[in-house]
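FAQ
Q: What does a multi-component entry look like?
A: The components come first, one per line:
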Amino acid sequence: MTELTSLTIAEAREKLEAGEFTSVELTEAYLSAIDAANSVFNAYVAVTPEKALGMAKASDARRATGKAGALEGIPLGIKDLFATRDVHTQACSHILDGFLPKYESTVTQNLWDDGAVMLGKLNMDEFAMGSSNETSHYGAVVNPWRANGSNQQLVPGGSSGGSAAAVSAFLCAGATATDTGGSIRQPAAFTGTVGIKPTYGRCSRWGTVAFASSLDQAGPIARDVRDAAIMLKSMASVDAKDTTSVDLPVPDYEASLGQSLKGMKIGIPKEYRVEGMPEEIEKLWAQGIAWLKDAGAEIVDITLPHTKYALPAYYIVAPAEASSNLARYDGVRYGLRVDGKDIVDMYEKTRAAGFGTEVKRRIMIGTYVLSAGYYDAYYLQAQKVRTLIKRDFEIVFDAGVDAILTPATPSSAFGIADEDLASDPVKMYLNDIFTVTVNMAGLPGIAVPAGLDAKGLPLGLQLIGKPFEEETLFRTAYVIEQAAGRFTPAKWW
Amino acid sequence: MSVDLATVKRVARLARIAVTEEDANRMVGELNGIINFVEQLSEVDVTGVEPMTSVTPMDMRKRADAVTDGDKADDIVANAPTTDHNFFLVPKVVE
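Then the predicted structure of the entire assembly, as tokens:
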């Protein structure tokens, strides 16, 4: 790690402004870090050095004329789910082979408008379906963290595994990510980084490859809470091209950092104390409660009675929406085509060859629950349960609770090619048990690193907020970060 | 409810995914595992509960009924596997 790549976005912003180095120098430092280490981590599936240096040069020129944006000259990594004009965009799927969009996603356009520089596209689970980044067509990503005294390769979590690993290994200053059931928060927790899934509608979904449209939201993964606040401010916007994007002003999230928690009420939901949860996570949670109490917050016990139904409801709603969204990959308009004896044969062969096992599994589940005779029993029932899950949160917030504190994940990072998890898809799905409720209710949630387990691996806490009150989450997460400190992996690569 | 081999094949057909006999047999077990997992939803009392249609209560934003985009046929077919004069080409569908 060179000195430049160790800087946070906030630090780099200050030093760029002071003229201590240029964006070109900073970008070159990241490009050489990627060059040296990407073969180890497999975090980037496409590196775009020419584009990066071109953008950095343009940024330095803008700064020279006094026109610096909020992310002026900051090199970022972009999850492969975001459409980037004329640049690799495949949702890490074989079925989008060779796809080069002729348009730019709103989220990435917002970042470029604020002066950011693109380093390349980051690995992810295929179509964001996975919790370990192992379903990617481009192979698994290696977590920069290792257990004490072990050189076993661990997963960085998923689906935004490339984003989390790249941020944690200093291969970008920050990264875009997306979260449908926990895909920002779980990888952030597994890599000692900060990840926020904002309220549904806060970021435009336009130009982001769709997985489950009623759940998908973009957000950042960053080195610390401040960097996440800086990035979200830039990513969020109302957008005429996404009617579910919300027309509310985007606050200056950074301004909420350092504000007191006095008078704030933090809810502790008893339903998140799940059976078989490691004692270390229980302890971490208690530690988090103590930190917030010390900072002046009032701690109250709350109940969210439908919590246990969130994951089963998710595994109906998300596959149902996915089966519909992924119907567009038919070998006609983009990507892979496998020829067949007639058009249906061509569709079937293309989709059989183009989609991976997990994606097929979810399309099959979604097709099944939406098929004639099953719609009421599964999909309609799940959407009703979803109403109840959301109502649980509304009751708690109406009673005066400002934010909810929970663990982010039920364990620390696990090994790549874990046989136990590979043999039972439902076991892998349980990774999202603490995060998925937030997507089902459309709420904002942030994962912030809070400590290390006995193996020396990072663990995170999650804060859940009211709709569009991301400021409360940043303010509270900052208190946890101040108390817990920051966590960086020991460099072995 | 549980799925059998015939159901898996029917669903694969609906989803337009070719499956081998081996794939289909494996999927029977996997899909049943997931179906059993989601089955617990049936124990929730949903009497009088409306199904969720939108997480944030909002009116759909509308825009003027005007042409705001277009004239980019080259861009639209740029990624297609086979095209001819800005048409997507597919295997023959009518005799």
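Q: Is there any commentary attached?
A: Sometimes. For this entry: The mean pLDDT of chain A is 97.
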